[in-house]
Design a protein that fits this description.
By secondary structure, the chain is mainly β. Helix content is 4%, strand content 19%. The strands form 2 sheets. Strands 3-5-7-9-10-11-12 form a 7-stranded parallel sheet, with no helix packed on it. It has a 5-stranded mixed sheet with strand order 1-2-4-6-8, with no helix packed on it.
C-alpha cells in the first residue's frame, strides 16, 4: 500500500512483499517502509541513506557494502542475509533495533551503537567492531567472533555461552554478570598471555 500525506512529499510503503528484486541495479525507492518483507533481494553497494525501515524483515538478501547514512532501522530483522562491511554507526540512532539470524556480518561496524538486548543467532561476526557499543543483555548464540573488537564495550549480562573465537579484555570492557562457557574462558585471558592446556 502506498500513501503520501497531503502535507508531505514522503512516500510510505506498507505491508508490501518484495521478492527476488535486484535493487543494486534499479535502486530502492526513497520512502518509509513499514511492515515490509524483502526476500532474496540484492542490495549490494546500494545507497540506502535516509530511508526508514520499521518492523521490516530481510530474508536471504545481500546488503553487503550498502551505504547507511541516517538510515532508520526500527525493529528490523535480518535472516539468512549477507551484510559484509556495513557501517551501522552511520544509521539514525533513534529507536535503532535490529536482530540477526544466520547472517554473515564480517567486517561490519557497530561503533558506539546501542545494541541492548540484540540477538545474534548463528552468525559470522568476524572482524566486527563493537567498540564503545552497548551490548548489555545481548545474545550471541552459536556465533563466530574471531577478530571482533571489544573496547570500552558494555557487555553486562550478555550471553556468550555458545559463541566461539572471541577475545575480550576484562580490564577495558564491562562484563558484570556476562555469561560464558568454561570452554570460552581462554578468550578472556588472551591479554594475560596465559596458556591453558
Amino acid at each position: 500500500m502506498y500513501r503520501t500525506p497531503n502535507n508531505m512529499n514522503k512516500t510510505y510503503i506498507q505491508d508490501r512483499a518484495f521478492d527476488k528484486i535486484d535493487f543494486s541495479e534499479i535502486g530502492l525507492a526513497k520512502a518509509e517502509y513499514e511492515n515490509c518483507k524483502f526476500t532474496n533481494c540484492i542490495f549490494s553497494n546500494s545507497d540506502l541513506s535516509y530511508l526508514k525501515f520499521s518492523e521490516c524483515e530481510f530474508s536471504g538478501c545481500n546488503l553487503s557494502m550498502c551505504k547507511l547514512n541516517k538510515t532508520s532501522l526500527c525493529d528490523v530483522k535480518f535472516k539468512d542475509c549477507k551484510l559484509l562491511g556495513l557501517l551501522f554507526e552511520h544509521c539514525n540512532e533513534f529507536l535503532f533495533t535490529v536482530d540477526f539470524e544466520n547472517c554473515i556480518l564480517n567486517h561490519s561496524s557497530f561503533f558506539k551503537r546501542n545494541l541492548k538486548k540484540t540477538k545474534f543467532k548463528n552468525c559470522k561476526l568476524q572482524e566486527v567492531d563493537y567498540t564503545e557499543a552497548d551490548l548489555s543483555h545481548a545474545l550471541f548464540e552459536n556465533c563466530d567472533l574471531s577478530g571482533a573488537t571489544f573496547e570500552n564495550t558494555n557487555l553486562e549480562k550478555a550471553d556468550f555461552r555458545t559463541a566461539c573465537n572471541y577475545s575480550i579484555n576484562p580490564q577495558n570492557n564491562r562484563l558484570k554478570k556476562a555469561r560464558f562457557s568454561l570452554a570460552g574462558v581462554p578468550g578472556l585471558l588472551d591479554v594475560y598471555g596465559i596458556e591453558i592446556e
